[in-house]
Amino acid sequence: MIYQNDIENIKLIASDLDGTLLNSKSEVNDRFFHIINKLKEKNILFVAASGRQYYSIVEKLDQVKDDIFVIAENGGYVRYRDEEMLIQGI
Q: How would you class 26 by CB atoms within 10 Å of its CB: exposed for 0-12, middle for 13-18, buried for 19 or more?
């Protein structure tokens, strides 16, 4: 359980997509986008991490794509806003 006083110690939250953020229909709950805005207000970064390709992730999280980090392709591609931070080829 996280207490209100503990929130200020959180700097980053990361989550997988399939089976975590996405339901069985591969949809994101609308509350998620509200939560991302609240995290942004508290300067907490959110990272969407997945084995999926970048554009598959952004398609699901388009509303907040400029407010989150995306780790795609099992860590082989990392992007924040328009900046590619890591491209790891096979």
A: exposed
**Other C-beta atoms lying within 10 Å of the C-beta of residue 90:** 4
Q: Is the pLDDT of residue 77 over 70?
A: yes
- Is the pTM higher than 0.85? The answer reads yes
Give CA–CA dist 82/77, Å, rounded.
13
Instruction: Scan for tokens 């084995």, then name that residue.
Output: 51
Instruction: Catalogue the active-site residues.
Output: 16
Q: Which two tokens stand for residue 37?
A: 């805005």
Query: CA-CA distance, 71 to 12, in Å (whole number)?
Result: 13
